[in-house]
Design brief:
- The protein has 487 residues and is mainly α.
- Helix 12 runs antiparallel to helix 13 and helix 14 packs antiparallel against helix 15.
- The protein is globular.
Length: 487
């Protein structure tokens, strides 16, 4: 905004006396500098301000100021401002500006030739937007980029592996199911063809293959874990043949474990644990690229939680105990169990299906909760309390109202004290106790949504259930998901 004010002063001074202040006449360079300042400012209205300046430049140029014509830098800076803004519809606006820029260039305005930075900004904006259809639109921009590079024969527009990987990641996260996973494989094959035809800037690497495996892991298709295994095997084959750019790493194996965890296939948890064993073996043999980390172990626990198999809760706690011993012996923060790990173990207890396992699962759930509560650097969250209320609802006999109420009451009071009450917690509380007991616990409020609870109860919770993170089998609420890490 300071740069904007200085520009406004320049324009006012020039207009007051164009002859004396001829050197203050605004030009493209000055406007581009201010637009670039807006693009990098992180202010909430930066993108709209930058575009307003683009429009003003065009109007002033049309009115006769020859040295004030928008060029490729102008459009790219505005596109970048929209790409970085994070506001709803920003990616679509960046895409529209690129279309406008391309149309003007094809109509003869050579100053508006899009370059690599322009395409990169739009692809990144679309890929990260999460908007419906964004992956396909990002791929369309990438295809245009490839076509321009092929027809132009210069380096002004040069697609790279990073562009392709960004589009692949968009397809993986698109929610497009099997079709998205298959499209990701097709893009991988496209990259391979371009590389073999002489484009050395486009070459599949480990991140490329990881994104394709991730697309299958998220697809929900029954073939997903098997196809992911085949892709991993292909990576191993290529690496052994000398292509070390595609060597599998920890993220590859973590994603494969996640594919098995989500599959619901009989024996999936055991297979996930076998994959963990392979990683441990390779890491012990000296290859640090296969080092199991917290996410690895937590994903295996999650596989047991989703399995409903006999002994699942016991197996999940065993993995947690192994992590604790490993961290205590090494002090390695990359293997330290966290709240997500504890929540996954408790989730395995909540969905114990074998009647004979229920008493032990109940004991494990509260044992893990006590451990989590005793840690100085981690704490139960909304998801923790949601799971434990599910434990009460699912594992305590319904006819034993007194025990169910005492456990649920104690948990709810702790949840209120830590400020983690949200709609998921309230829903599970209602399932665990009678309606009269529920109303007494929420102090007989007519509207029993989290938004109507005392602020002290909800101070650390996300009130909107739709934005509380992924709704899992245990309930939701709290940061139960995993953050994708780079290599």
């Amino acid at each position: 905004s300071r740069a904007d004010a200085i520009l406004a002063d320049m324009i006012e001074l020039h207009q007051s006396d164009p002859i004396t202040n001829a050197d203050l006449r605004p030009n493209t360079y000055v406007f581009n500098t201010v637009i670039n300042c807006w693009a990098k400012s992180k202010e909430p209205d930066a993108a709209s301000k930058a575009e307003e300046m683009l429009v003003a430049m065009g109007r002033l140029h049309t009115n006769g100021i020859a040295g004030l014509k928008p060029d490729a830098f102008t459009y790219t800076a505005v596109i970048d401002a929209w790409a970085k803004s994070g506001v709803r519809g920003a990616a679509a606006r960046a895409d529209q500006l690129l279309d406008k820029m391309e149309a003007k260039y094809l109509a003869g305005d050579t100053d508006l030739k899009p370059n690599t930075f322009t395409y990169n900004a739009v692809i990144n904006a679309l890929a990260k937007s999460g908007e419906h259809g964004a992956a396909a639109r990002a791929e369309r921009v990438l295809q245009n980029m490839v076509n321009r590079h092929r027809s132009g024969g210069n380096d002004d527009i040069k697609p790279t592996t990073i562009n392709f990987n960004t589009v692949l990641d968009a397809w993986a996260k698109s929610g497009g199911g099997r079709a998205a996973a298959e499209r990701a494989e097709e893009i991988l094959e496209w990259m391979d063809r371009l590389n073999k035809s002489g484009n050395t800037d486009v070459k599949p690497d480990t991140i490329t293959f990881n994104a394709v495996i991730d697309a299958w892991a998220r697809s929900g298709d029954k073939r997903a874990p098997h196809r992911a295994e085949q892709i991993l095997a292909h990576m191993d084959d290529l690496c052994r043949a000398g292509n070390h750019d595609v060597k599998p790493d920890t993220y590859t194996f973590n994603t494969l474990i996640n594919a098995w965890a989500k599959s619901g296939e009989k024996g999936a948890a055991a297979r996930a644990e076998q994959i963990l064993s392979v990683m441990e073996c390779r890491y012990r043999d000296g290859d640090s690229d296969f080092k199991p980390n917290t996410r690895t172990h937590t994903s295996v626990i999650d596989a047991w939680a989703k399995s409903g198999e006999p002994g699942a809760a016991k197996r999940a706690e065993h993995i947690l105990n192994t992590m604790q011993r490993l961290y205590q012996s090494t002090g390695d923060p990359e293997t330290k169990p966290n709240a997500h790990t504890a929540n996954a173990v408790m989730n395995s207890c909540a969905f114990t299906k074998v009647e004979a396992d229920r008493p032990e699962a109940l004991a494990i759930a509260f044992r893990v909760f006590d451990w989590l509560s005793s840690q100085p650097d981690m704490h139960p969250d909304a998801y923790t309390f949601t799971i434990l209320l599910s434990v009460c609802s699912n594992l305590l006999p319904r006819e034993d109202r007194a025990t169910r109420f005492s456990h649920a009451k104690a948990l709810f009071e702790k949840c209120c004290g830590s400020g983690h009450v949200n709609d998921y917690v309230l829903r599970k509380l209602r399932q665990a106790v009678t309606e009269e007991e529920y109303l007494s616990l929420v102090e007989y409020r007519g509207d029993t949504s989290a938004a109507n609870m005392p602020p002290s109860w909800t101070r650390n919770a996300r009130l909107n259930a739709a934005s509380s993170g992924r709704h899992r089998r245990g309930g939701g609420g709290g940061k139960g998901g995993f953050q994708k890490k780079g290599r």
